[in-house]
Amino acid sequence: MNPTAKDAPTFAQVYESLLGILRRTSGSACFGTLANWLFEPQNPFNPNQRRRPKPELLILLTYVALMVGTFAIFNFG
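User: That's the sequence. What structure does it adopt?
Assistant: Structure tokens below.
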């Protein structure tokens, strides 16, 4: 059975569904998911230890900082 345009959910339906999911979950769940994406896994033997950022995040932030610096030098320097 091929889906047609009639069967596809509208933007408003998808938006309301996402808002419902966000309302049901607590705010800390969203921050926990974001922290899991950005930082290394937590040490199970020392849960109070600070979590280090993932190398991918550091590379991305370094790249963005270099691009902003280059932009500033060529436009305002």
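Residues 37 and 54 are 8 Å apart (CA to CA).
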